[in-house]
């Protein structure tokens, strides 16, 4: 199942994608991913422009999370083309072949892609400030003082000034998730991925996290958000993909899909959640 | 219940004090005797040396045990099963007699004359056999403890580190090791205490550790019980002395993971935090 992604000729897209100009874009064609015999992604296409907000919706197990995890390389696609920021993710094209990148090169690509997890995944042995600084200090080798300064302003940006020295265990879920967003932002990514960022939160804490995400959207960040928050999708998203059983059922303008779903399955799903 | 406990305690104390055959004066006399102190020092040295080498080797085996290469995993697994599945006493005697199996070891470059030959019989003195035996055995236990610690780190933590673009080495050092410490430290402390007592087995090889020292004395004077009390008191003293630093280290590594740890909370904000 884990043979390298086979190169497939895209049907409609330009075959030569400029590497320099793809900043903040995600481009996927016929993405396939399976775990053992279970296919979790089947021929998924994705086209996200710089600054676009794309929401992924669909029932649990529809492949939203897997798609996100493929976009930052936590999972490898079995086949298909996946380019993030204009670069083939995890692969390198030479004159003669198409070969996997080294771990180091994959790590370098990942610094360009921010990821926010459903369960926050903050480092429990570090304070909020050190969590935000971790990428800067441990990966980008920024000096501690400069990193701390940057981390402070990011924490202030997500409304957590004064919480710098708190350990994650002393923060509420909403606060932890905002620290996690700040931690991802610290790497100065060009694409941000959110994997059901509010699903693990108490209802009254959802708003503070969505607020931060909305701010981020207004600043022009490219965002790919797996979510069950239809209100957020309606207000903030540019495009929307409804997934079911690993396939794209409907993909298009967010308001259009939400108000006039063409597919029956989309209609059924929306009736239940709205 | 209280009364019963106090009664039992008093009965033991009464017997300890009034039974003359405990010979407490002999205990006091030999407690700080030179040979006993030498034995204590050797026991301490043997414990820490084998514990240190065993831990280093154990970490290595733990890493090999989770290697993506199957034969490497099997090899590490077999090592662990073998050394955990056979008695330490047998292992110690085996290493002492290993010369019967491999009389000479030659170290050098194959097919050349460079190198030298070592007579194993001369090399395997009791102290070397004791160190090798205890180290190899300890490594097997430490490997399992370290592996358990690594496995206790939630998968999300590793994904978080990967998503930030951390290298494998940074991830191990800054994410995996600090977070596996709360499970590894207490277990290692117990191993260390166990190792202190386990070193007494080397007395069968004739190593002059604490037990062997008192045995040498009582084989001469026949004051068996008082001298065994001397040894027991020293072992007890040393294991108790280890408990305190262990609790300090545990406290250090549980930072931020449990309620009631020294989190510098701003009192003004503390109230707001409780309401989550």
TrEMBL record, chain A:
A GO molecular function held by the record: ATP binding
Domain of life from the UniProt record: Bacteria
Principal cellular location given in the protein's record: membrane
Region entry Disordered, spans: 1-21
Alphabetical keyword list: ATP-binding, Cell membrane, Membrane, Nucleotide-binding, Transport
Subcellular location per the Swiss-Prot or TrEMBL entry: Cell membrane
CDD domains recorded: ABC_HisP_GlnQ
InterPro entries, per the entry: AAA+_ATPase, ABC_ATPase_HisP-typ, ABC_transporter-like_ATP-bd, ABC_transporter-like_CS, MetN_ABC_transporter-like, P-loop_NTPase
Regions of compositional bias (Polar residues) in chain numbering: 1-18
Bilayer disposition of the protein: Peripheral membrane protein
Residue span(s) of domain ABC transporter: 26-270
Protein name stated in the entry: Amino acid ABC transporter ATP-binding protein
Originating organism: Prauserella alba
